[in-house]
């Protein structure tokens, strides 16, 4: 296979494929898909006291919504989904462009 200056590494396809598959695997892992909608893990207080917690009324919905770790994971998942979609679109456009150029060169496209 002939390579250009931008693809001099013999394993370019392997690296690209590996990165794409790993991104896909992580993005659609059931744990990741579930975790992006739940609050991040926090240390749990010991259960060796009878004293009740003091403070404001607990609002678990808001706490989950406002959790910065959950928001960061959700943003990373959205970015990964976008990157995968973009990669698919770019490669499809590239294949089409190469085929058209090849067919034009060979005289198969008039």
Description:
By secondary structure, the chain is mostly helical. It has a domain of 76 residues. The chain contains 4 helices and no strands. Helix 1 packs antiparallel against helix 4. The longest helix is centred in the C-terminal third of the chain and has 39 residues. The chain is elongated and about 85 Å long. The mean pLDDT is 84.
Brief sketch in words of this structure:
The chain has 110 residues and is mainly α. The chain has helices at residues 12-27, 30-35, 60-66, 68-106.
Q: What class would the helix/strand composition place it in?
A: mainly alpha
Termini Cα gap: 28 Å
Shape: elongated
Mean pLDDT: 84
Query: Roughly how many Å is the radius of gyration?
Result: 24 Å
Helicity, as a percent range: 55-70%
Low-pLDDT stretches: none
Instruction: Give me the count of strands.
Output: 0
How much strand? under 5%
Biggest sheet character: none
Order of helices and strands: HHHH
List the total number of helices. Answer: 4
List the quaternary state of the chains: single chain
């Amino acid at each position: 296979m002939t390579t250009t200056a931008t693809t001099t590494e013999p394993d370019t396809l392997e690296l690209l494929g590996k990165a794409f598959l790993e991104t896909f695997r992580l993005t659609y892992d059931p744990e990741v898909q579930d975790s992006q909608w739940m609050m991040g893990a926090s240390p749990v207080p010991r259960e060796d006291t009878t004293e009740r917690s003091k403070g404001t009324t607990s609002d678990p919905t808001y706490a989950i919504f406002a959790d910065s770790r959950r928001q960061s994971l959700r943003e990373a998942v959205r970015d990964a989904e976008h990157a995968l979609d973009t990669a698919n679109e770019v490669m499809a456009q590239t294949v089409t462009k190469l085929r058209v150029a090849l067919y034009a060169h060979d005289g198969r496209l008039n």
